[in-house]
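Can't paste images in this forum, so I'm doing it all in text. The chain is below; anyone willing to post the predicted structure tokens underneath?
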Amino acid sequence: MALRIYDYSDSARQEILALWARALPIDVPNENIFESRVLLDENFDPATFLLVRNGNALVGFVVGYVAGRMPMGDADPDGTASWITVLAIDPDVNIPAVTAALLDELEERFRKRGKTTCSIANYPPAYFTPGIDKLLSAPLVQQLQARGYVPFHEALSMDAPIVLFHAGDAVRIKEMELVRDGIEVRAYRRSDLVNFLKFLDRSMPTDWVRVERRNLRKMTEGAFHPEQITVVSKGDDIIGYCQFEGSHFGPFGVAEAYQGRGIGTVLLARTLERMRNAGYHDAWVMWTDDVAAKVYGKFGFLQTRRFTLLKKKLA
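Text version of the structure:
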């Protein structure tokens, strides 16, 4: 093969989406999602979205990011991180050769920008999957490991039917115990705003804060609603929260000092009730771990997919 590498060009958009559909059919975006989550990402750079052609045919592409216009906060505290969110190779070509050509070039471009690590595929603002699907993309995981990418975490996607969801007596009893301790699980109120932001800044990852600020801005425009956020309060303090967007459940977190008291179980149950009451028949979470999965499992969530997150030292 006579492979040549090119920077992203919008003239190749339809070719890219067509190849994405062949290579990664479960995760292919429509054009609107492609624009909003790739091209309009504040850190998008055509020089880290690489295309590889064999003659005139597009046979692969890789989407990479480094922090630029948007700082990554606790995901990149020293500014040396880089990420790959999508690696798609035509299934009818020499996949290892095309993969090597793309990654050799992209990793070198990352190094020239002073990046010392590259992670797959957990770029916080705009990942399509949390990592590489262990079942559907097992050969790719092996290729990446052969190149020095080391697994460092596993993530699960989970789904549950909620049309008949009922929290049950155990949740009600636990909620009463929490109330006796001055802890309330309730819908977000607009007057919670400043205390809610304090909680997020103090207790949650930088990207979760960014997501919630975006939704709170949408709330001022009528495009997001207080009922979509469930909070946990103790006095004037917010100590936990969960939200939903459509049938997507989460983020979902409780301040570290209050974990292990059953708060998360009640928070999860009451959020699922609000989702059911809003007319949703199903709930899904893209990214959780095996510990939280035990809580989700109590309410009918089953593992849908399992992903491997990988990281490579570039320096």
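The chain has two domains: 3-154+308-313, 163-280. The first strand starts at residue 3 and ends at 7.
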